[in-house]
Description:
Blueprint: E1 4-12, H1 19-28, E2 34-35, E3 48-49, H2 63-68, H3 71-87, E4 99-105, H4 110-123, H5 132-136, H6 140-149, E5 155-156, H7 164-177, E6 183-190, H8 195-203, E7 232-240, H9 241-246, E8 253-262, H10 275-287, E9 297-299, H11 306-320, E10 328-330, H12 333-336, H13 343-357, E11 359-360, E12 383-384, E13 389-396, E14 400-407
Parallel strand pairs: 4-5, 4-6, 9-10, 9-13
Antiparallel strand pairs: 1-7, 1-8, 2-3, 6-7, 8-14, 11-12, 13-14
Helix pairs in contact: 3-6, 7-13, 10-11
Amino acid sequence: xxxxxxxxxxxxxxxxxxxxxxxxxxxxxxxxxxPITKFDVSDFKVKLGAEVKDFDPTQYMEKRDARRADANVxxxxxxxxxxxxxxxLKEGNFDPxxxxxxxxxxxxxxxxxxxxxxxxxxxxxGRVSPFAIPEMIANIAAAYISMHFGFKxxxxxxxxxxxxxxxxxxxxxxxxxxxxxxxxVCGGTENGIIPISMAGFQNMKAVHMGxxxxxxxxxxxxxxSGFVMGEGAGCxxxxxxxxxxxxxxxxxxxxxxxxxxGDAYHITSPSPDGEAAxxxxxxxxxxxxxxxxxxxxxxxxxxxTPLNEKYETIAIKKAFGDEAYNVKVSSTKSMTGHLLGGAxxxxxxxxxxxxxxxxxxxxxxxxEPDPECDLDITPNKAVEMPINVAISNSxxxxxxxxxxxxxxx
Length: 409
């Protein structure tokens, strides 16, 4: 089987619009959370979000396309263009039919639906945009990426809520490992700071409703009360080791393991026994031919909800046994908020950078320990240490669990 390596990365996030600025923010504990400015929240209980800032989609797309596309496409295109540029993929050094795109989103162009449904109800069917459907469907970001670059290989869109990004990366790894593709551009994107989304999440009591950004997204802290919605995208270029070496690409890290499972328990709550999540974590470690003792860092799902960290801690303990207290853990959602379908993709990038620079990014905002979350969660300040192996957990609504393992090359 082919080894699978990462040769390019791109990111649009609440704490930076490229990988260097994103990573610098994580290392220094910069918080990307603030008052929501994208729409009027006067009538909303939720007031805070982690918005993308100073981003111009026309740097990456034609004005006409940018105008009609949802912001999830804007973020995806920007991240993909950054990643492909870093990877050095150019016409002639890849086979279009062996270069795929596996790029997901949790809700896709929900904002398009939000804009078009009132037109239907108030002005009639003739006023609905002819672009409503193609710009609304979740797979259209993957389509835009493939059309921009001429990638004609496997092209599809995993949709598994918060686990979307890891499913994209994991399935891309498998496609390459088993010889179906040479290169896959993969990741996830989300435009979730919109009225319908925020109203739905606030009414199910899933999001934090306070107004202090420093006490909003506080994973593993006893005060945590709900996640903070983020937005943006992350993209990775995966390719076979053979293909990368043949074209002289710079190899950033290796995607060596992938595990996935389903809780079969509840539409929103993780399973209290943590067993299925632990199965996914163990699966990623075993898939890489490693043991829990080999893992240096876990980028936790860590959403800052009362249930997630309690049950994720149980899952990590079940997967790692006695090693659970020896591994560094942190949640970068303390800085970025929760990017839903884009979360795991930017967190995979954080793992790559942690390995490359030997730095564990912190869990910021941590003040009050929770005895049920007693792992080493790297509170408030980054830690310098050698990191050879990192894993990233993603646990999505509906019980979708996906874990990837990244290691140094």
